């Protein structure tokens, strides 16, 4: 339920992104892919979620984002070598731009 000050406020929340809903929609979209592995889908989901929350908007942000992403998800990347492999491949491809 909304508080009365929210109801009476001039602020419009319609443009806000609900991270939980966005994550759910992202997973649903990725599930539709049939030519990628489960680990590739997981990495794409982690990256999409990270980029959305950190507002990575331009190609110039990608080097910082890659470093921050690897720090945030480092444990997962070390525990699943295939995730690290796909991330390395992604970094290589983005460096070609």
UniProtKB/TrEMBL annotation:
<keyword id="KW-0863">Zinc-finger</keyword>
<dbReference type="GO" id="GO:0031490">
    <property type="term" value="F:chromatin DNA binding"/>
</dbReference>
<keyword id="KW-0862">Zinc</keyword>
<dbReference type="GO" id="GO:0005634">
    <property type="term" value="C:nucleus"/>
</dbReference>
<keyword id="KW-0479">Metal-binding</keyword>
<protein>
    <submittedName>
        <fullName>Polycomb protein, VEFS-Box</fullName>
    </submittedName>
</protein>
<dbReference type="Pfam" id="PF09733">
    <property type="entry name" value="VEFS-Box"/>
</dbReference>
<keyword id="KW-0804">Transcription</keyword>
<dbReference type="InterPro" id="IPR019135">
    <property type="entry name" value="Polycomb_protein_VEFS-Box"/>
</dbReference>
<dbReference type="GO" id="GO:0008270">
    <property type="term" value="F:zinc ion binding"/>
</dbReference>
<feature type="domain" description="Polycomb protein VEFS-Box">
    <location>
        <begin position="1"/>
        <end position="89"/>
    </location>
</feature>
<keyword id="KW-0805">Transcription regulation</keyword>
<comment type="similarity">
    <text>Belongs to the VEFS (VRN2-EMF2-FIS2-SU(Z)12) family.</text>
</comment>
């Amino acid at each position: 339920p909304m508080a009365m000050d929210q109801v009476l406020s001039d602020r419009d929340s319609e443009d806000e992104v609900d991270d939980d809903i966005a994550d759910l929609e992202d997973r649903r979209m990725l599930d539709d892919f049939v030519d990628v592995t489960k680990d590739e889908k997981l990495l794409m989901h982690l990256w999409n979620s990270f980029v959305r929350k950190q507002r990575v908007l331009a190609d110039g942000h990608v080097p910082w984002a890659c470093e921050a992403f690897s720090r945030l998800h480092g444990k997962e990347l070390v525990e699943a070598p295939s995730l690290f492999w796909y991330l390395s491949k992604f970094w290589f491809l983005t460096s070609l731009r």
